[in-house]
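Before we proceed, please read the two lines closing this message. Report back on whether the structure tokens fit the sequence:
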Amino acid sequence: MKFRLLGPALATAAVAATTLVGGVAVAQTPTAVAAAKPNCDSSIVNVPAKESVKIRTSPKLSATAVGLWAKGKKGALCSDGKSFKGQKYKLCGKTSDRWLYGGPFSSRKEGYVPAACIKW
């Protein structure tokens, strides 16, 4: 195996990213910390939507929509209906930054929905 000179900064980073575990060198890679998914073990059930709203992957309007919670359809809210702070929105006649995590029973999709659009 040939070694090439990476330059002082890169060589230092390469050495720092390697640790010795039990006599074997193990390369370490940086890991991203993902946001924890809300606890759906404790849920509020039979909660209807005031209006049809998109179910999103994160609490912001630009997040990917994974489903639709139709007006009047019942579903469940995770974390005992606890709301989460997210992007500010003006929907369903209200302005808020509170989001709920859950989804309708019909689609079995879960995600973030604007709290102003759910009867809770």
The first strand starts at residue 18 and ends at 21.
